[in-house]
Amino acid sequence: MREEVYAFEKKAGELASLLKEKLEGRTVDIFTHADADGISASSLFAMYLHLHGLPFRIKFTRPYGSREMMELGKSEGERFFVFLDQGSREIPTLERTVTSRGHEVLILDHHPGRAPEDPHLLCLNPHLMGMNGAKEACASTVVYSVVEKMERRLRKEVWLALVGALGDRQELAEGFTGINALLLRRALEEGVVERKEGMKLLDREGVPVSECLRISVRPYLPGISGNSRASAEIPERLGFPPSSTLEDLGEEGERRLCEALLERLGKRGNLERLLWGSVYLLRDRSLPNLRKWAVALDASDTYNRPEIGFAANLGDEEAREECLLLLQGYQRRMLENMEWFSRNLPSFQVTPKARYVRVGRAVPHSEMGEMLSLALESGLVEEDRPLIGLAEAGEREVKVSGRATFSLTALGINIGKVMNEAARAVGGDGGGHDVSGAAYIPKERVEDFIREVERCLPQPVLSGRK
Questions:
Q1: 8 - beta bridge partners?
Q2: pLDDT tens sequence across 376-432
Q3: What are the start and end residues of each CATH 3.90.1640.30 domain in the chain?
Q4: DSSP 3-state percent helix, strand, coil across the chain (nearest 5)
């Protein structure tokens, strides 16, 4: 076991022992991000509270900034605040305005931040153990690492940690790493999850191969996704029965399909890695493959219904059905978004340091970040510089989403840091990981923000490419 992983596990055990005492008899206020990782992290924490009869309130929210933290500090009584998939960036504010007023705070997160100094602020974060929270651990794996040590009955819920990691795109070319890899081994050893080789498309069962290709958004297949004729032509040319699903094809048939797709699409983006690899399934088959379930949880967030994904994770059958219906709508919307992106590609602003996508109201701000990720992964744009989108998020506010690749971060680019510094310079708020980040800024300061981004980004690293 790597030294950093060992240190993380040791810290998780120490925190678990301390937390069992601190939670006794308390009502807990949970603030969690609303994406697949945040929903899964909060599901795991809520499972522990429910098993022990501890009351809680939960709020799905974008990451709280300094102003929101200061308001929490004004709460009456001595409260217990839990931040999942957020909070690390605001530790100085929390210590200054929340724990200093008698409240207790717990942060289980994987975003960069400094270590707390106040003993009333407990924190577990892989960055503080020398790991990269963008690829070695997500919020769900952090939460699971604590709660399974507090309650052994939760060991079998390790699949939720994997859902969070898949939702946050932490499965790399070599597979999972760090804490994620440790928990995958546990899931396989415990017999909770099964793994097999195959195509990593979401809709492996229930729809014909042609429809699986047509509605594919993760990955997005340029020229095939959203194109009924092209998506039907490939399986027909391979001689597959019209009604056959991916699961019906068997590994040999899936390999033939994958090769045909790569021949059609060429070596663009990361499609080869995104098309073929490990498929994760719950042994009891109570849910679709875990990759599809992660996107279904993201869909509940997109439709502003994260409570549906939360209830589904906790076993509510009606919520699970509704979550899968939301996924269908989400796939339609993302296909429309990608069509807009492809159509407007020539109009994007390109500087030596970044590529800017001014979305306006054409794409909902809650869907813009995923659109940028799909565009990079599928090779619609080159990976030579960060991709930054700007969408209206109200009458006075603009949401910014930034995406890069690990090859760019290896050359010194840190999107989360750039989002934070540039947003604060114009009166906004932002942050994130090295490969991805977001910010909210005043609408009238967009041009100032872009100038700040250009100032914060390193000099061109892959110049000469457009």
A1: none
A2: 999 999 999 999 999 999 899 999 999 999 999 999 999 999 999 999 999 999 999
A3: 3-164
A4: 50, 15, 35
pLDDT digits (tens, 9 = 90+) for 432-464: 999 999 999 999 999 999 999 999 998 755 544
On whether the CB atoms of residues 190 and 182 are closer than 8 A, the answer is: no
- Is residue 213 a contact partner of residue 239, using CB atoms and an 8 Å limit? no
User: What CA–CA distance (Å, rounded) separates 288 from 13?
Assistant: 32
Radius of gyration for the alpha carbons in the chain, expressed in angstroms and rounded: 22
CATH 3.10.310.40 spans which residues of the chain?
Answer: 348-456
Q: What is the largest CA-CA distance in the chain?
A: 69
Closest CA to 60 of 35, 78, 77: 35
CATH class of domain segment(s) 348-456:
alpha beta
- Distance CA(272)–CA(266), nearest Å, equals 9
Domain 3-164 has CATH 3.90.1640.30: yes
DSSP element (H, E) containing 31 = strand 28-32
φ/ψ of 34, rounded to 5, equals -105, 10
Strands 28-32 and 56-60: parallel
Q: What would the DSSP string read from start to end of 238-268?
A: TT--TT--HHHHHHHHHHHHHHHHHHHH-S-
**Dihedral over Cα of 44, 45, 46, 50: its sign:** positive
pTM of the predicted structure, to 2 decimals: 0.93
Report the alpha-carbon distance of residue 108 to residue 41 in Å, rounded.
9
Cis previous bond, 346, omega within 30: no
User: What single DSSP character describes residue 449?
Assistant: H
Task: Please count the other Cβ atoms lying within 10 Å of the Cβ belonging to residue 144.
Answer: 31
